[in-house]
Design a protein that fits this description.
9 strands; about 20% strand
């Protein structure tokens, strides 16, 4: 899309969904009720078999900023998000998972940061990730300073992903430059995107929890073998960058530990040796 077609000041919020009708409405309403209202809300349905379309139609009657998009391309979260990016007309793009919800001033806060940091192509924040029994942890961890999480974060990204996809706000032209989500990944596609963003641009960071992520089972993204396979793909794709940042050994150790934990160490070692040779 040509940058001349972006609508200045408009934020396109992309929400991929698949059979999440029980949680989707709360997520969408957290966007509808944002303090910043110059939005379009793109709900990309990955061909759900429940009543998602009916729910979105009802919500769109209440709020004309909502657009229902049926994903007729690559399935999965990456394909659905890419469909949303292609359809978006906002100057900025934000993401929300269909079971997460924004704090009321999430978009306003991040838009102010991007406007005051012209050199930054994207903005992210801490978020609260719930686990069982109401317990939660904060990502990135509170032991990491705001200063270390802003600016050039590529070294940190090669150690581990600190950028939660639902906290992202990206300038649309930057998203176009890096090419959206890589649909070859069945897991960690958000990590891959964040690495490419960090390679391309400095980051702005909000030292607040701007997104809450309730505990739910998220299918393929929680499959340990999918996660391990994706880490191997990252090592192959960014081998030179791991070497340049001095993080290759760290990444190898993590892969080996994960492989041992799930009982596939003998199968993974030859693959890892081939990648790093």
């Amino acid at each position: 899309m040509n940058t001349n077609t972006y609508t200045e000041g408009l934020v396109s919020v992309i929400i991929p969904t698949y059979n999440r009708i029980k949680v989707l409405e709360k997520s969408v309403r957290s966007v509808m009720e944002q303090s910043y209202d110059n939005l379009e809300i793109l709900i990309v349905d990955d061909r759900s078999t429940d009543n998602t379309r009916i729910l979105v139609d009802e919500l769109s009657k209440e709020d004309r900023r909502i657009r229902y998009i049926l994903n007729d391309g690559d399935k999965g979260a990456s394909g659905a998000r890419n469909k949303g990016i292609f359809k978006a007309v906002g100057e900025y793009i934000a993401f929300e998972d269909s079971d997460d919800y924004y704090v009321p001033d999430k978009i306003e806060q991040q838009l102010e940061l991007l406007k005051s940091n012209k050199n930054c192509g994207f903005c992210y924040s801490r978020f609260r990730k719930y686990i069982e029994d109401g317990r939660y942890y904060i990502v990135p961890g509170i032991g990491m300073t705001a200063e270390s999480l802003a600016g050039n974060i590529i070294h940190q990204m090669m150690v581990d992903n600190v950028v939660g996809c639902p906290t992202l706000m990206v300038r649309h032209n930057i998203m176009d430059e890096i090419g959206g989500f890589d649909t070859h990944f069945r897991a960690l596609e958000d990590y891959d995107l964040a690495i490419r963003l960090a390679k391309r641009s400095d980051a702005a960071f909000s030292d607040r929890e701007l997104v809450y992520s309730p505990y739910t089972c998220k299918g393929v993204s929680t499959n340990p073998m999918n996660d391990l396979s994706a880490r191997l793909m990252l090592m192959l794709k960014y081998k030179r960058l791991y070497i340049e940042t001095g993080t290759l050994n760290h990444s190898m150790e993590r892969v080996l530990t994960d492989a041992q934990d799930i009982g596939v160490l003998d199968q993974i070692v030859p693959i890892l040796e081939k990648i790093i040779s």
